[in-house]
Amino acid sequence: MAHRNVAAKAGLSAGLRALAVGVMGTVLALVAVLLLRTATFPRLDELHGWGRPGAFRIPAQFSEAELKAVKEALKEAIRIPTVAFSSENINTTALTEFGEHLRKVFPSMFSTSFIQHEIVEKYSHLFTIHGSNPKLEPYMLLAHIDVVPAPDDGWEVPPFSGLERDGFIYGRGTLDNKNSAMAILQAMELLLRRNYVPQRSFYISLGHDEEVSGKYGAQKIAALLESRGVRLSFIIDEGSYIMDGFLAGFKKPFAVIAVSEKGGMNLKLQVDSAPGHSSAPPKETSIGILAAAVSRLEQTPMPNMFGYGTEKNMLEQLAGQFGFPMNIVLTNLWIFGPIVSRILEKSPVINAMIRTTVALTMFNAGIKVNVIPSTSQAMINFRIHPGQTIPEVLEIVQNIVADDRVQYQVLNAFNPLPLSPYDHEAFGYQLLRRTIRDVFPEVSVVVPGICIGNTDVRLYSNISTGLYRFNPVPMNPESFKSFHGLNERISIKAYENQVMFLFELIQNADTEKVPEPHVHEL
Ligand SMILES: *[C@@H]1O[C@H](CO)[C@@H](O)[C@H](O)[C@H]1NC(C)=O
Ligand SMILES: *[C@@H]1O[C@H](CO)[C@@H](O)[C@H](O)[C@H]1NC(C)=O
């Protein structure tokens, strides 16, 4: 995943712990005197009734030899250093080698009559799997094959060795994101060997430059499909996980499906003033004016957007898993919302989930110590909350700066992604939710979230409104640090489960409608 949205989630834990403490003291008395609603959430037994109408369901049972091949194929993939150093410098030798590896370990994917394989922009892969029922709208499974650089320093095993140790496979890409690229093809390969023919068509898309923009991979594939008139029911990419051990007082893991991601804007601020000698300085210089402007921006937070994203729904659903009084507080955000959001914003990570963030990242002015500079410039990086747009943020910025000597130039910007649907009618979301509960019975609840970084899936917004980010692997605070960091690894069990998840998900998609959940009052 690009831009370290992961470290982000690690902070969730600290934030919610602070929340627990803060809320306890403040509202306990209030809770006692109010008659409040308790949590309502669907029960785990609702999963019955799945199935592919009129078809035999293939059980997810694999031989020892198959499981060995599954893990060896991943190790070999890790050993190919498909490093993206910059958008113009990716190891193309390794990308080519990676394509050869796919052919070798997934032969059925390349020899089945109803599967078409295309190479896009030399290194990205697009598989079209033609289903038997053209009435079912197709979907897409998305992943990327490039990785960020990993110098050997600090690693317990060399980052491109793919070594196995204590039940883990180590190496760059084991989580971000060769695990997904390999598991998707692996699951389909195993299904094909069992003579599976899907009813619903789908695409598998593997981009080769996600870490450095996606402009030659995902963007070209999206444009290609758009030119063919393809519409997708939903797309599943990386970007969120099964969270384990993140919340104090919350023993069971819970799954977060990210239904949106933040937008971004790089803005240049500039102040020009008459140059001169420092011996007779004017009352204000461009440096002073610009410094005051950016300082106001840093001191004045953007509006708190709590309630305009998914955080409210997320907290309400998590509520049932907490004890008193947190359960009461979180199920009654109509009254406790303001205080909860006030406490949440103290954690930088959660703050990033509930508002547009402002990061002053560059400041340039002056060339000589005795010369008043004629111009000063500052660069600011904004991450835009899904409840806002680029023009709205610009207007707020101008109102905060409130100085017409400051000029603005948008260097580049993209709007946040709209929230993909996550109600009972949302096929992609419900399909994920049900499959999570089938394969990971230990998961207590599945909630919608927002990704504060960016992934390839945002480039597909023209061909689908159901963009979901979910990587079916458990994450604990420790493993988060390994993303783009040291000792990235995946347990063999977790990888097998990921393959099994996809094996089930692909079969589950062969239905017109996810069965209605039964909601019980608890
Ligand atoms: C690029 O990949 C090739 C083939 O896998 C490898 O031999 C080479 O060392 C890599 N180059 C860099 C700079 O990582
Ligand atoms: C979607 O389509 C519009 C209009 O053709 C285009 O300008 C835009 O770049 C496309 N978006 C993406 C993410 O490709």
Automatic annotation (TrEMBL):
* Reactions this protein catalyses: N-(9Z-octadecenoyl)-L-glutamine + H2O = L-glutamine + (9Z)-octadecenoate; N-(4Z,7Z,10Z,13Z,16Z,19Z-docosahexaenoyl)-L-phenylalanine + H2O = (4Z,7Z,10Z,13Z,16Z,19Z)-docosahexaenoate + L-phenylalanine; N-(9Z-octadecenoyl)-L-leucine + H2O = L-leucine + (9Z)-octadecenoate; N-octadecanoyl-L-phenylalanine + H2O = octadecanoate + L-phenylalanine
Q: Where does the source fall among the domains of life?
A: Eukaryota
* GO terms under cellular component: extracellular space
UniProt pathway: Lipid metabolism; fatty acid metabolism; Amino-acid metabolism
Q: Where is Zn(2+) 2 annotated to bind?
A: H144, D176, D237
Q: What is its EC number?
A: 3.5.1.114, 3.5.1.14
One protein family per Pfam? M20_dimer
**What are the GO MF terms of this UniProt record?**
aminoacylase activity; metal ion binding; metallocarboxypeptidase activity
Q: Which residues form the Peptidase M20 dimerisation domain?
A: 260-405
> Alphabetically, which GO biological process terms does the record hold?
adaptive thermogenesis; amide biosynthetic process; amide catabolic process; amino acid metabolic process; energy homeostasis; lipid metabolic process; proteolysis
Q: Which of UniProt's keywords are assigned here?
A: Hydrolase, Membrane, Metal-binding, Protease, Transmembrane, Transmembrane helix, Zinc
SUPFAM superfamilies for the chain: Bacterial exopeptidase dimerisation domain (SSF55031), Zn-dependent exopeptidases (SSF53187)
Q: Does the keyword Plastid apply?
A: no
Q: Which residues bind Zn(2+) 1?
A: D176, E211, H484
What does UniProt list as catalytic?
D146, E210
Q: Which InterPro entries match?
A: Bact_exopeptidase_dim_dom, Pept_M20_carboxypep, Pept_M20A, Peptidase_M20, Peptidase_M20_dimer
State the function annotated in the UniProt record. Answer: Secreted enzyme that regulates the endogenous N-fatty acyl amino acid (NAAs) tissue and circulating levels by functioning as a bidirectional NAA synthase/hydrolase. It condenses free fatty acids and free amino acids to generate NAAs and bidirectionally catalyzes the reverse hydrolysis reaction. Some of these NAAs stimulate oxidative metabolism via mitochondrial uncoupling, increasing energy expenditure in a UPC1-independent manner. Thereby, this secreted protein may indirectly regulate whole body energy expenditure.
Q: Which family does it belong to?
A: Belongs to the peptidase M20A family.
Q: What is the protein name given in its UniProt record?
A: N-fatty-acyl-amino acid synthase/hydrolase PM20D1
